[in-house]
Amino acid sequence: MIKPFTNIPLITSQFPSPEELLLSLTNAPRAVREIVARLWLTEGLPSAFLRSPAIYEDLRGWLGSRLDVHPKEITLIGSARIGYSLAPPPDFGRPFHSGSDLDLSIVSDNLFQRVTSEFTNFSSEVQSGVVVPRTPRERILWGENIAFGVRNIPKGFFDPNKLPNFSRYHVAQQISQSMWALMRRLEVTDGAPEVSRASIRVYRDWKSFVDRVSFNLLAALNPA
To answer: Contact at 8 Å (CB) between 213 and 107?
Structure first.
């Protein structure tokens, strides 16, 4: 018997409503979540740039040139992508607004290796005392950030903002400076969305990316 392709009858538009997403994906198998993660949550024109698509594409080109990655390796997720928050309740479904973030993702093995190499150096230098926290609060944060890297780098992703903005961690500092410059450019760009901050998560490959987005979607639909 020939097996048909999977359809999700309630999701027929580019930006399904929170209710359509809930009805379609609650208790759905992983394969269905991954379909949504690949097409609706990681590809195409994001909701935040629906009225200004050229700005989004210029942003990707500009950021790609700064970080030495191809623009097509850069994408948006979260509320800027689909138009509302996919965080667990009570935030699930909250519309994208001027206080929202731009959650940028870069899927690049080259950048992932550069960033995780700096994480390895950072972790080693903290343990050896080469770099020392300047405050008790920083000591706590560094410990949490090192634990984050140890836990998630094997899963294929890392947040460069978990590294100190020090010149010795050049790639992380370059990403931090790029996020600052991106925000300043958005502020002076007519038609650009208003957001509170921008951040980057780097992924080793597309499988790691889709796996994580699918996992986050499952957490939002089935909160503990």
So the answer is: no
The pairs formed by 52-61 with CB atoms below 8 angstroms and a separation of 24 or more are 52/191, 52/192, 52/193, 55/189, 55/191, 55/192, 59/182, 59/185, 59/186
- CA 65 to the chain's CA centroid: 19
Residue whose tokens read 């290796």 = 113
Say whether the peptide bond before residue 90 is cis (omega within 30 degrees of 0): yes
Where are the strands (E) in the chain, listed by range? 74-77, 101-107, 157-158, 197-203
Task: Indicate yes or no: pTM above 0.85.
Answer: yes
Per-block mean pLDDT, blocks of 10 residues, the chain (224 long): 94 95 93 95 96 97 98 97 94 95 98 98 97 96 98 98 96 98 98 97 98 94 76
Cβ within 8 Å of residue 86, ≥6 positions away: 41, 78, 79, 92, 216, 217, 220
Give the separation between CA 63 and CA 65, rounded to whole angstroms: 5
The number of beta carbons lying within 10 Å of the beta carbon of residue 202 is 29
Q: How far apart are CA 106 and CA 31, in angstroms?
A: 23
Integer angstrom CA distances of residue 173 from 116, 118, 165, 170, 179? 13, 11, 5, 5, 10
**Residues 177-186: pLDDT tens digits?**
999 999 999 9
Closest CA to 218 of 37, 1, 79: 37
